[in-house]
Each structure stands twice: as C-alpha cells, then as structure tokens.
Write a structure and sequence with these properties.
The structure is a homodimer of 355-residue chains.
Chain A: H1 2-9, E1 35-37, E2 40-42, H2 50-56, H3 71-86, H4 89-96, E3 98-105, E4 108-115, E5 126-130, H5 145-154, E6 158-161, H6 173-186, E7 194-199, H7 201-215, E8 223-227, H8 239-242, H9 256-265, E9 288-293, H10 299-311, E10 316-321, H11 336-352
Parallel strand pairs in A: 5-6, 5-7, 7-8, 8-9, 9-10
Antiparallel strand pairs in A: 3-4, 4-6
Helix pairs in contact in A: 4-5, 5-11
Chain lengths: 355, 355
Amino acid sequence: MKIAHVAAVALLLAGTSYAQQPQQEATPPVPPGARHVPDHIVPVPDTVSPQMQAIIAQPYNPNWNVVPKSPGEWKAIVDKAAAAVVATLPEIREKLGVTVQPTTIAGVKAFIVTPKVIPPHNRDRVLVHVHGGAYVLSPGEAATKEAIELAGFGGFKVISVDYRMPPDFPYPAAMDDAMAVYRAVLKTTKAKNVGIFGTSTGGGMTLAMVLRAKMEHLPLPGAIAPGTPWSDMTKTGDSFYANEMLDNVLVSDDGFLHAAALLYANGHDLKDPLLSPVYGDMHGFPPTILTSGTRDLFLSNTVRVHRKLREAGVEAVLQVFEGESHAQYYRDINAPETKEYNAEVAGFFDKHLGR
Amino acid sequence: MKIAHVAAVALLLAGTSYAQQPQQEATPPVPPGARHVPDHIVPVPDTVSPQMQAIIAQPYNPNWNVVPKSPGEWKAIVDKAAAAVVATLPEIREKLGVTVQPTTIAGVKAFIVTPKVIPPHNRDRVLVHVHGGAYVLSPGEAATKEAIELAGFGGFKVISVDYRMPPDFPYPAAMDDAMAVYRAVLKTTKAKNVGIFGTSTGGGMTLAMVLRAKMEHLPLPGAIAPGTPWSDMTKTGDSFYANEMLDNVLVSDDGFLHAAALLYANGHDLKDPLLSPVYGDMHGFPPTILTSGTRDLFLSNTVRVHRKLREAGVEAVLQVFEGESHAQYYRDINAPETKEYNAEVAGFFDKHLGR
C-alpha cells in the first residue's frame, strides 16, 4: 500500500501518466475512460461583475427542452420571442445613440444600423451582422440587438441581415440571403474593409460565409468575429457533455437545440461544413476573433475552431469570459463584461480592416 | 401555463434575461443562484488525438486528496515522485536532441538545457524556466521536462531554475531563487531577449516574477508564457467548482493542492500578489501567451489573468485545448497537441523577443 501510494503521488502535478486505477462505480455503467462527475454545486462566482453575477444566477432557461411539434408551434414560439426582444430594443438604441433603418438589399430584408457618430477611420468600413437564435428565432427587428451594440460601442456602420428561416425556409435559404447581402456590399466597399460577425448561429454562419466565399471565389472579408459559434451541430465536442446542465442558456443539446438543427438542416448532412463549419478547410481565412465563456455549452465549438484556424496559419484570437454560459458576454449593455467584449471586437476590426 | 411557456421560450438564445424560476431541489440546499449540476457522464472526446484521448481517459490522479502530515511525509512523496519523473527523461532528451547540464547561478541550483542546434536568430536569446509541482514537487532534474521540450521543439537555450522549496524553504525562497537567476541572466543578456515560462506553479511564478521585477525596478522580460498558472491560491474562480471531479490531474483544490498552498505560504496571506498574482497590477506587463484546457481546474485561473492583462492594455494571447485537464498540453511529446503547444509558445517568443 505504501509503495503504490508513493508511486502514484510520484506523478501528481508532474505531467506524466500514472498507473491505471479501477474506475469509480456509477449507475448506469461508465464507458471506458469516461469521467463520472458526481452531483455537485457550482456557486455564483464572485470573480465577475454584479451585473454578470445576476445573469449567471438565473435558473435554467426553462424551455431548453421544449420541442415544437408542428410549423405552427414553431411559429408561435418564434413570434412571441421576437416580440419580447423587440420590446427591449428602444432603450438600448437610445442609450447607445444608434438608429436602425429597415431596408432590402439584393432582395433580402436587412437593417442599416448606424451610430450617431462614425469616426473618420470607419467611414469606408462596413460590418455585416448575422444574428443568432438556432436558425429559427429572432426574425425582423429582434435580430438587431448585437448589431446595435457593436455599432454603438464601436462606431461602425452595421448591416444586419434578416435572413429567411425555417420552418418555411430551411437550409440553404439563410446562407443564400447572407451571401447575397455580402455580394451586394462588395459592390460598394472593398472586401478588406468589410467585417462579418455574429453570435451562436450567427457565429456559425460567419464561418460558413467565409467557407462559401472561398468556394465561390469571392474576395474574403478583412476580419471576422464569430462569437461562440454553432460550429458543430452534431453534439460532438467535450463541452457538450462537460458543461451540460451547467450552462443556464443552452443547458443541453438534447432538446430545443437539436430539434432546431434538424429543422434547419431539413435532411442535409449536419456535418456538411456549411452547416457545421468546424469541418471546413480554414486555410486562407481572414484574421478572426472568437469569444466564449467557461460555462458555455459551445466552449468546445469555439476552441476547436480556434485550434483549427491556428493550425491553418490564421491570425486567430480567443477570449473566454469567466463563469459565463452561452452568449452572455453581450447580454446586458450595463455590464462591464459587455463593454469589454464589444471593445475587444471593435478594436480587432479596427486593427485588421482596411481603411 | 401557455403564456408563461411562450414568454420563457421568447428569450431562448435571444440574449436577454427571463423571469426568475424556482431553483431545482438539491441535497444539501443550493445557495441562491448556485447551479446544482446533477451526476453525469463525460465521455472521452473524439475531437482530440488518440494520444490525448489516452491521457484524458486516465482515472483520477489517485493522490489528489492525500495530505501529508509531517515534513518527513512530504519529503518521502517528493523524493519518490522526482525519481519517477527523472526515469522518463533520458528518452525525451534523446528524442528531442537536448542536453541538460547542472550548474549554479548566483548561488542557486539550475540546469542549462541546450538543443542540438540553436538557430541564428535565437543565439542571443535565453528562456528562464520555472517548473511546476505545487511548490513542493519536482526538485532537481525532475524540474527539467518542460524545459527540455521547449528547448527541443523551439531551438532555444533554456535555464531551468531548481528553486528551493518547502517544507525546508517556504515562501519567499522559491521567488528569491528565481529572481536571483533572472538578475544574473540580465548581466549577459538584454531583458528584451529574455523570456520566462512555466506551467501551473511555474505559471504563477512567471507572473509573480514580473510583478517583483516591477517592484524592484528591474527591466522586464521581452515576453512570458505562463501555462495554466496557479494565479489564485484561494479556491476563488468558477472552474475550481465547475471542473471539480472532472479534471483528472488536480481533481479538486480540497486535498493535496490546498495543503501544498499552506505549506508554501507558511502563514503569508494567500492573496498576496506574489503568491496569487491575479491580484497584482499587470500594467506594463510584456506580451504574454496563456494556455489551459476546457476541463482544467485552473481554467478560471488562466482566463482571469487573460482578461486582467487585456484590461491593462497588454498584448495577451489565450489558447485553450479541447478536453484537456490541468497541464496535459505538454504531457506526451508524441501527441500532436504537445507539438502544437510548444510550436505556439516558441513562435510567440520568436515574435516578441529581441534578437
């Protein structure tokens, strides 16, 4: 006992492997090598702002496991959700001094999101925004929250794409719309002066747009900012399991999220790089800033893309916010973390976009 | 019910807050806002190399909760541990073509770690290495593994500091030794050409050395690479709780790790920035590359330092490896992730150090 004890301690923290030990018991049986993490309590961290503590303290999004049964059920959820978001926007626009103008670009609905002052070095720059919401939520004006923030905090003109969504318009309608707007923007703005950004689904689309621009031999944007991208729609990646029931926004892939993936894919392979861009070829990508949180169900979706970009020789920056679940970094414009996130992304675009 | 249901879904993935819901039940009672994460299984990810899968599949370090009761018990563990590590080194030195020469610098024991070939642009550069091991493990040659790797993969001359440790020499002996070597190196090498790196305790010491260099008005190194730094010794930070019993190396703060912290601190305040550098003033820090893993108990220790450096305007790079627990990124020199880690750190030093 003494010898085994000492030999095992021998390797504690020393960076080498130690002898195989019997796996601890669990019900159901634990697959070989899998970790059985016992029931445990994770307190609200005191290492984030009070505003972020309040967000982290919220209970699970109570509808993470709702699976709508018909197009009508999807639409009812989507419409009510959009109305709730839209109600919050006037105050945010007002505080940040941003105006939002609906328009149509190349036949696609969009919003021109404009800050009160565009500094001279941003006058010939445009950001294209693709919103989040599992490819089904946030139609219309509900799409614009993140665009308002970056316009306001960063002093950029932003075009937010109100792309078509299922149940009426599954893949590839959303991507077709986003690409149509990108092509239209290229007619008036040099590609190097164009940035693309979005969170969650919008992060996945941002990456997929660059993959598609490569396929279509379009000039690539000057820089991109995919936030916690839905880069893998197949529940592949460690944090899908490790952060399950810890992330209070997505909570788990097994519920609304997976149902939305199937609704959007409409029979297409979920591993197609235009749906799950982590499987795409990222050589030649523009400079990229990625953001996630330590509790994010998509932490692996984010770091896997970061590693893949770095392996492809791309200038890729990663930031991971303490204690945050999915996409909480832009939740509250009064939280210092939200200002910090927007300042980082704005600074990254300023550094890398042409003028 | 229908209305509450719809209103709640309304905000799913939409980035806004939803109404407070009753907290789910747990035993013991869950503090307000705390997350009660149920018992769950985290499989070995198939998103990492086979070599890394084998490391991730290992059971808990069986001695994470061993608390030695006397100096004799500490020393017995340390000596046996060191012998086990040293036994692995000849093969690593051989494979990487690195020689290790014991020496004494300013009265401090150290090792000169030299690759077969030092490329011309690295001839006037030196890296100072401070090893990991909870301030108590890895005396002598056992300290050199990480130094051998970066010398071999990166083509750098490395000086690995064999600093004094408790139980005989608690804080500040380790820091005094590391600073004595740094001062000595500055006599022959320009500070801008000097890098400092280390993992875990070595990551914490790397940060603390810059804090102390600032206090002592020494010129600062050209760049630093603190890997998964023990930047907070007080079990403060979300991943101390979120990744508890998930990380198979450190497993939990409540055991060997906390005992080692108290042994080293020897009555000093654990929140002193020279012990827990996350509490230090990081303005003026040199370019910094930080590394962690998604399962790392020190993920928060890493990202908190990253955010703090960025807030202070420092060029700070973060990389987080998929599925990895504490310090597994340099575990196996045959794993692609280990080569990638060393290539990233070597490239960062090459980019930022003077020539």
